[in-house]
Design brief:
It contains 4 helices and no strands. With 92 residues, it is mostly helical. 80% of the residues lie in helices and 0% in strands. The protein is elongated, with a radius of gyration of 13 Å. The mean pLDDT is 85.
């Protein structure tokens, strides 16, 4: 996860829209990986869906070559990550 996050920030820093879109897609796909050991509760499924929507929004603005929009969308993806990780930690 850390490598993906670093890669995403690099894409924003150098305005590499293809890298940003690809990283967002990879993050979205990673959240669907069956190897993740997470509680499959209704709340978690909702959190995961929100995260995927945020990743989709990031891909969209990256394809539009909208750097400001990508930065804001990246902040939303990050917020969704933090919220979900908090949920998973607190569920234990």
């Amino acid at each position: 996860m850390r490598a993906k996050l670093d890669h995403e920030l690099e894409g924003l820093a150098v305005a590499d829209y293809e890298m940003i879109a690809r990283s967002a897609q990879e993050l979205s796909l990673a959240s669907l990986d069956s190897n993740w050991q997470v509680p499959q509760t209704e709340d978690y499924v909702g959190q995961s869906a929100e995260f995927c929507r945020s990743c989709d929004a990031l891909q969209k603005v990256a394809r539009e070559k909208n750097l400001d929009g990508a930065a804001l969308a990246w902040a939303d993806v990050t917020l969704k990550c933090v919220q979900c990780h908090k949920y998973v930690r607190d569920a234990d």
